[in-house]
Amino acid sequence: MDLEEVADELYGLVPGGFVAARTEAARRARAGGDRALAQRIAALGKPSTAAWACNALVREEPEEIAGLVELGDLLREAQESLAGDQLRALGTQRSRLLAALTRQARVVAARLGSPLSDAVADQVEQTLRAALVDPEAGEALLAGRLTGPLSASGTGLGVRPDLRVVPPPQPARAPDGPRRRAGTGDRAVEEEERRRAEEEERRRAEEAERRRRELAEAREDAEAAAELADEAARAARTAGERARRAQRRSDELTARAEELAAELARVREEASAAEAEAGTATRRAGAADRAAGRAAADRDRAAARVAELESAGAD
Known about the structure:
Helix content is 78%, strand content 1%. It is mostly helical. A two-stranded antiparallel ribbon has the order 1-2. Strand 1 and strand 2 form a beta hairpin. Helix 2 (18-31) packs antiparallel against helix 3 and helix 5 packs across helix 7. The longest helix is centred in the C-terminal third of the chain and has 130 residues, at 185-314.
């Protein structure tokens, strides 16, 4: 069993499973006869929620975190060379990258079953910011074994927890601040204070600009959503009116169809009656024809008898 492997496994777990897994790993080390390793495993600190989210983000997006640390190097180079345009461009890139990585950390945490609160997300962003301004913080973040969030103020680090667990953490470095260096004199101190004040002013300006852009984007999104809502409402009203007109037309045609059906039924009844009457008239006409034929025959016979009698009397 190797401490590096155990640490990698433990700090990749969700917070709720860390303690039990650490206890089991220490037990296995003791069972294997390595009590020193068991003690070192048992000493591994449980990460806070923010630290766990940062560790998970490193495992999910190692290239993005490496890019963040590299951007910090570029920012420090730009500060040393006093390249104002480059510094402003990199500052804008920094703000966007910090916001994007913080959002990604929330996505990863939610997917792993431990959504982040706003307060914890702020700690994640502060840790990412610390990795930007301090090389050691960047290395600690890339190791993926933070036990607590990091913090930074300006270009110097503020109070922070132990950076790395394996190898054993080194004592935290005292925050940087204005200090007199041998041979530099008061002028060097004033220059350092001025530089820090300018950096803080730039940071606040960048933060204000970021918030202004986010507000402007939010307003644009709200306006676009309002326009879409109005358009959808108009479309709904138009569709509703068309539906009502179609229903009225359907009702009219249904009523007309019913009227025509009733008229057709009446005509059929009249046609049936006329057909029956025509049959009766045809039968009566046939009987009359036969009666007329018999009457004509009787007339002819009677006329012949008269003629016969008249002829006999003359003789």
